[in-house]
């Protein structure tokens, strides 16, 4: 799925044998090798990365793509990187003023910071995760949603992933076009430079590598929803799960 996955936060444990242990050559070489290859083949390397993290008393595993409690994961074999020179976000569809924004344009807009738990539909949870970005409602207001607009569809520059929200959901205060995560710019492995963040819903709704925001006349189920996941993905009230809410 197009969400980050937990590494279990296994940092080698807190017993006396683990604390202060010297950096092992195999650990360092393993981290370097996985870090270099992880962006290209993240989904297939996850098992190998997990093995390194479980035996890493150093904390260096946090430097891997997907460290810090999250995993690199994608529905495609690879995703092109985009940055200052070539990233654009298009707002179109049933709007009066279609527009294309670059990173500098998004950074110049008023930002909102949210801190909530992140909950994946597969069960893992990362507590108190800060996200910061432009409220989606502000972009929709600037574009001028036409009266027939009822929903919003999201496209991603991985070329495969899509998501959707009702217009009412998209206008919530806790839905962001996010540029920062954990108080740093969002890196490529976490869906950067720009991703969607839908705080009260399961993390598959927070589409990575966001490239298009399209206002539509009806909800268009996203990638995983076409394969059986709930379209209305409220944490603890969907997908047959009873997790505590994140909001």
TrEMBL record:
Ranges for region Disordered = 1-21
Where do Basic and acidic residues bias regions lie?
Answer: 1-12
InterPro entries of this UniProt entry?
A: OxRdtase_Mopterin-bd_dom (IPR000572), OxRdtase_Mopterin-bd_sf (IPR036374), TAT_signal (IPR006311)
Q: Does the keyword ATP-binding apply?
A: no
Q: Which residues are listed as membrane-spanning?
A: 27-45
In this chain the Oxidoreductase molybdopterin-binding domain maps to 78-224
| Record-given protein name | Oxidoreductase molybdopterin-binding domain-containing protein
Name the source organism.
Kitasatospora saccharophila
Q: What's the source species' lineage?
A: Bacteria, Bacillati, Actinomycetota, Actinomycetes, Kitasatosporales
């Amino acid at each position: 799925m197009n969400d980050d996955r937990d590494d279990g936060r296994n940092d080698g444990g807190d017993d006396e044998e683990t604390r202060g242990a010297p950096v092992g050559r195999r650990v360092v070489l393993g981290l370097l090798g996985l870090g270099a290859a992880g962006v290209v083949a993240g989904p297939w390397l996850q098992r190998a990365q997990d093995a390194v993290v479980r035996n890493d008393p150093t904390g260096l595993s946090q430097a891997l793509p997907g460290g810090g409690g999250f995993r690199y994961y994608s529905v495609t074999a690879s995703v092109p990187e985009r940055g200052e020179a070539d990233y654009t976000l298009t707002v179109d569809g049933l709007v009066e003023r279609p527009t294309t924004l670059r990173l500098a344009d998004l950074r110049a807009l008023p930002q909102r910071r949210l801190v909530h738990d992140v909950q994946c539909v597969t069960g893992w949870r990362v507590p108190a995760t800060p996200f910061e970005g432009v409220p989606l409602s502000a972009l929709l207001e600037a574009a001028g949603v036409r009266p027939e607009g009822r929903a919003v569809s999201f496209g991603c520059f991985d070329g495969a992933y899509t998501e959707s929200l009702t217009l009412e959901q998209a206008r919530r205060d806790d839905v962001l076009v996010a540029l920062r995560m954990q108080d740093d710019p969002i890196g490529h492995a976490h869906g950067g430079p720009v991703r969607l963040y839908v705080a009260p819903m399961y993390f598959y709704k927070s589409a990575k590598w966001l490239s298009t925001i399209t206002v539509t006349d009806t909800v268009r189920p996203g990638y995983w929803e076409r394969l059986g996941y709930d379209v209305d993905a409220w944490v603890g009230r969907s997908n047959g799960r009873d997790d505590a809410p994140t909001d």
